[in-house]
Design brief:
This protein has one domain: Hcp1-like (Pnp Oxidase, Chain A, Roll). By secondary structure, it is mostly beta strands. It is globular, with a radius of gyration of 21 Å. The strands form 2 sheets. Strands 1, 2, 3, 6, 7, 8, 9 and 10 form an 8-stranded antiparallel β-sheet that branches. Strands 4-5 form a two-stranded antiparallel ribbon. Strand 1 and strand 2 form a beta hairpin. 5% of the residues lie in helices and 44% in strands.
């Protein structure tokens, strides 16, 4: 008999689903968020040889790279993506960047089926590297939803372990 992996809800055996989540930017959940890319990091390898042992190559960990994060939002009147993208590139032609506001720490929450925060991550010093304001528009697709896309570069993330397993009823 396998031991339960849920400390608070010992009766639970199923992992969390991926369709209930939220992204919090500037203290507010993003409206109409449809999809988020994976949080991924890679530790680069450093290869070296010892002078006394030239036939064997050693490998040790080097720097860590964090993959860009993509967010997809259903087309709404919520300007959060556009406002943030405009902090990096001003359409008026002014090359100045808002050095105070263009980098943001954001929160990614995974919710349980009751809508309670179950797992939380904080993404550090994110900034907009790509923004798609409108999708391709096609009069022949009546049932399609318009999607805005935001690509974020960032300097890493970590899990917020102060967010514990919520009690389910």
């Amino acid at each position: 008999m396998a031991a339960p992996t849920f400390s608070v809800n010992a009766h639970r055996f199923d992992p969390y689903r991926t369709f209930k989540f939220q992204c919090i930017i500037d203290g507010r959940p993003v409206a109409g968020l449809q999809k988020m890319g994976a949080l991924k990091k890679k530790v680069n390898e450093v290869k070296w040889r010892s002078a006394g042992d030239p036939s064997h190559q050693r490998i040790m960990p080097g720097g860590t790279e964090y993959e860009a994060l993509t967010l997809e939002q259903g087309l709404t009147h919520d300007p959060v993506f556009e406002d943030w993208a405009n902090l990096v590139n001003n359409i008026q032609g002014d090359a100045a960047v808002s050095l105070v506001n263009y980098r943001k720490d954001i929160i990614i929450n995974v919710l349980n089926l009751q809508g309670q925060v179950a797992i939380s991550y904080k993404l550090y010093r994110a900034w907009v590297s790509e923004y798609q304001a409108l999708p391709e528009l096609d009069a022949n697709t009546m049932n399609a939803v318009g999607i805005q896309t935001l690509t974020l570069q960032h300097e890493g993330w970590e899990r917020d372990f102060s967010v514990g397993e919520p009690s389910e009823s």
